[in-house]
Amino acid sequence: MLTITLLGTGSPLPDPNRAGPATLVQGAGESYLVDAGRGVLMRLAGAGVAPSQLDAVLLTHLHSDHFTDLNDVITTRWIGTFEPTPLRIIGPPGTAGVVDAIMASLGPDVAYRIAHHDDLDYEPPVEVTEVESGVIDLPGATTITVAPTDHRPVEPSIGFRFDVDGASAVTAGDTVPCAGLDRLCAGAQALVHTAIRKDIIADLPIQRIVDVLDYHSSVEEAAQTAARAGMETLVLTHYVPAFAVGEGDDWRDLAGAHFDGTVVVGDDLHQVEIAPAS
Ligand SMILES: [Zn+2]
Ligand SMILES: [Zn+2]
Questions:
Q1: How far is it, in rounded angstroms, from Cα 266 to Cα 256?
Q2: Do 59 and 90 form a contact (C-beta atoms < 8 A)?
Q3: Residue 167's CATH number
Q4: How remote is the CA of residue 206 from the centroid of ligand 1, in Å?
Q5: Is the four-CA dihedral 122, 51, 73, 188 of positive or negative sign?
Q6: In this structure, are strands 190-196 and 167-173 parallel, antiparallel, or unpaired?
Q7: Domain count, the chain
Q8: Which residues are tagged catalytic?
Q9: Taking ligand 1, which is a single-atom ion, which protein residues have CB atoms under 5 Å away?
Q10: Among 98, 145, 195, 241, which is disulfide-ready with 222 (CB 3.0 to 4.6 Å)?
């Protein structure tokens, strides 16, 4: 069994009901956090998971809304554990520089806490791995495979495929349809895909918002990606523009016109269970 929890279904636009982009993928007793947007630890607490329980944090790309609370994950895991337990952070090339800068920004805080707590004499341990494709070398039971996506000019960006206990799911992140994502999805059961309503956004009078059209998938395009791969389930997230909590039937209908499987449109903390493929 593989469990997907939508921790944050929001976008860069602040929303009182939606945390920033983040998805929890769990199987075989392991927990992987995909992206770490605004409010991620509040939602992780809502899902009953402590930062110390994360096996890795996976970043799809280095847009700020996808890692704005990574500093909180690093700090809270550090002060919430009682021996050095390195936080594994996996992301595209460029991730190490971003993490180094976060660590530099935490410098005063780290010094205060080490000075204050006799039993805390080490800095937050982090292990950064930069990847663009292939299988990540991890000690757990979950196989995580990476492929490049297309979110240009954000480059490189990556998607992740999780295979555990006979179940499989892909987290696409922000991307237009592309060969790398198709490769990752082939033979997998579920796709978690960020999506925007191009039919709505295209008519807005604000160019800076209209600009997002060219590097995200529409609901229809996300559905077509899932359909091409013959997947069972499409989970939409990162809703732009966001709909009111509990709604979203129109998003489900738009996707359903292009995909015969199950379309999930959920709010923060919505969970989807993927049973092993029969
Ligand atoms: Zn992005
Ligand atoms: Zn985004």
A1: 15
A2: yes
A3: 3.60.15.10
A4: 18
A5: positive
A6: parallel
A7: 1
A8: 65
A9: 63, 174
A10: 195
